[in-house]
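=== Given protein ===
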Amino acid sequence: MMIRAALLLLALATPALAQPQVISTPGSPAAIGPYSQALRVGNTLYLAGQIALDPVTNQMIADRSIEAETRRVLDNLKAVVEAAGFRMSDIVSTTVFMADLNEFARMNAVYATYFPTSPPARATVQAARLPRDAKVEIVGIAAR
């Protein structure tokens, strides 16, 4: 009987698995494929990769420098993060895909301005090709 009561208490104390909530905002470009800008599951936000698309035109920005692309990518991510009720400081992990790792230092200088304290864990890899021939794409995970 005691085991049955303990199991019942455990079942009542365990919340149901959180259902994924699609996050979408016009402050970030519309998806260019069958994916969501982000999915929130409980207190975790899974951010889709962003490239330097203008959220108004859904076209690549005119300034194709690595600095400009990195700023646009991070502004796009920020819009999605904030639409979900999170902050950039809630991002715990990012993966940065770059077309040319020779531009890493310049990308990194811009990236650092978005995470001035306690930057997220990060992996950076060179990709053979990114969507729309972007120079950089960043994905992330935020948690609270």
Summary: Helices lie at 2-13, 66-83, 104-114. The chain is about 30% helix and 25% strand.
